[in-house]
Design a protein that fits this description.
The protein contains 18 helices and 24 strands. By secondary structure, the protein is of the alpha/beta class. A hairpin with a 3-residue loop joins strand 1 and strand 2.
Length: 508
């Protein structure tokens, strides 16, 4: 029997999962680590925390499974996108990684747009300059920490730092690299024009691969730290969203995923390059060779519910500990008692600014319509509904671009909640399904590793073999009609508050 290892370097922790050839989970392990926020809107993590979590979870998975390391035929890496890991000439980390949800680089986005031109930038990178992307983070360090930037020899994405630690190779792959804003997206290669105009040396970047290609092999030092067999192949892998899409079977037209993790993502497969000229959604290279994907992102999806849990649900947390259940399950039970629409209470999930469709780092979270009638369960449900309204923003733009949507597959931590899935069905007006595995990104990159190892002939063949629909939830169209009225108000609220958001940010 052959086994495959998927490693997902996420924002809250690293999850390592061992699968058999049929995609069955054999063992899994999670290692958590902190998020540092030295200023409002800033977000950083220590790459060494990722590496320690990776080593520990690999060792634990191998131990728990009882599988001999020689039977693990390939490793796939998934990771949070857009983070900037800066190494010096001796390959030491120069500073904490500025990660995807950091909003400090708005001035650098203006600089990028000025240097390249707004339309030309979208033509090359398929996206406008965004604070979330890596290029603006690199320029922020260049502009604000010149002593650090002068020492930079290599620039890596989070998962590609783990690749370097495992294999000694400086490499990346097209799906994750697409979010650096340094690639020619239609050509699936680094853009010399963008790099030249931004003053970034191509030698600082890793070699670019397709996601299923072998990028290196586990070296002796990594073998001793992780328990993996020296020489085990490591494939390109994918950014977390493309990896999750592979793990959800989003490898053909018509099937779309709606993922509620820390951020929220609506992800659609595309056989051709399709770019929104307004830059409201992202077009990236998919982890399937010679295909692309369209992705709408809301920054504060699961983050919003976690924020509410941590600050206002101490009783639920303590009760859950006694009951040995997840606090979110108790919060779901409270939210279920509230009628759809929360009696006019609407939540804007902009705790970390917003990407789709507003591209506004100044946007802030809002409870609108709060009255003395409302109680905590109303607020819990309003948070959940607000997140789905933001995902509907993404879905509507994707439909506007001519993408057929015949099925929406729910995934991520929020996808485990039947209530949150039903909200999506009712608000989208579309059937919501789940599949037989909830491992998402880890399964996706394990599949890519299986293709690289020759276990599967292609990504599509692998998905057909290991992925099947498990649950279906139909939309209540009466509730859909009600939700549509609230959704129209939700959309207008951002427009009404946009100037106020900017004014508040100017005071902070």
């Amino acid at each position: 029997m052959s086994f495959l290892l998927g490693i997902d370097i996420g924002t809250s922790g690293t999850k390592t999962v061992l699968f058999d050839e049929m995609g069955n989970t054999i063992a899994s392990s999670v290692g958590e680590y902190p998020l540092y926020q030295p200023n409002i809107g800033w977000a950083e993590q220590d790459p060494e925390d990722w590496w320690k979590a990776t080593c520990n979870t690999i060792k634990e998975v191998i131990y728990k499974s009882g599988v001999d390391a020689s039977e693990i035929k390939g490793v796939g890496l998934s990771g949070q996108m857009h983070g900037a890991v800066l190494l010096d000439k001796d390959y030491n980390v120069l500073r904490k990684s500025i990660i995807w949800c950091d909003q400090r680089s708005s001035a650098e986005c203006n600089e990028i747009t000025s240097l390249i031109g707004k339309e030309r930038l979208i033509e090359i990178t398929a996206n406008p300059a965004l604070t979330g992307f890596t290029a603006s983070k690199i320029l922020w360090v260049k502009n604000n920490e010149p002593d650090v930037y002068s020492k930079v020899a290599k620039i890596l994405l989070p998962k590609d730092y783990i690749r370097f630690k495992l294999t000694g190779e400086f490499a990346t792959e097209v799906s994750d690299a697409s979010g650096m804003q340094l690639m020619d997206i239609p050509g699936r290669k680094w853009s010399d024009e963008v790099l030249d105009k931004l003053g970034i040396e191509k030698s600082m970047l890793g070699k670019l691969y397709e996601s299923q290609e072998v990028t290196g092999k586990v070296n002796k030092e990594a073998s001793s730290l992780t328990g993996l067999k020296e020489g085990t192949i490591v494939v390109g892998g994918a950014g977390d969203q493309a990896a999750g899409a592979i793990g959800n079977g989003i490898v053909k037209p018509g099937v779309v995923s709606s993922t509620i993790g820390t951020s929220g993502v609506v992800f659609a497969f595309s056989e051709n390059v399709s770019i929104d000229p307004k830059g409201r959604v992202h077009t990236f290279c998919h982890a399937v060779p010679n295909t692309w994907h369209i992705m709408g992102v809301t920054q504060g999806a699961g983050l919003s519910l976690k924020w509410f849990r941590d600050n206002f649900c101490i009783e639920e947390i303590r009760t859950a500990e006694l009951m040995k259940v997840d606090p979110y399950m108790l919060m779901d039970k409270e939210a279920e008692k509230v009628a759809a629409g929360c009696s006019g209470l609407i939540y804007l999930p902009y705790l970390m600014g917003e990407r789709t469709p507003h591209l506004d780092p100044n946007a802030k979270g809002v409870f609108f319509g709060l009255s003395a009638k409302h109680e905590k369960p109303d607020m819990i449900r309003a948070v959940m509904e607000g997140v789905v309204y933001s995902l509907k923003d993404c879905l509507e733009i994707i439909k506007e671009m001519g993408v057929n949507v015949s099925e929406v597959r729910a995934s991520g931590g929020g996808g485990k909640s039947p209530l949150w899935r039903q909200m999506q069905a009712d608000i989208f007006g579309t059937e919501i399904t789940t599949i037989n595995s909830s491992e998402g990104p880890a399964l996706g990159v394990a599949i890519l590793a299986g293709v690289g190892a020759g276990i599967y002939s292609s990504v599509m063949e692998a998905c057909d073999k290991v992925i099947s629909v498990k649950t279906k939830q139909q939309a209540d169209m009466a509730l859909n009609s009600k939700y549509n009225k609230y959704y129209e108000i939700y959309k207008h609220l951002y427009t009404s508050l946009k100037t106020d958001f900017a004014d508040v940010s100017s005071i902070l």
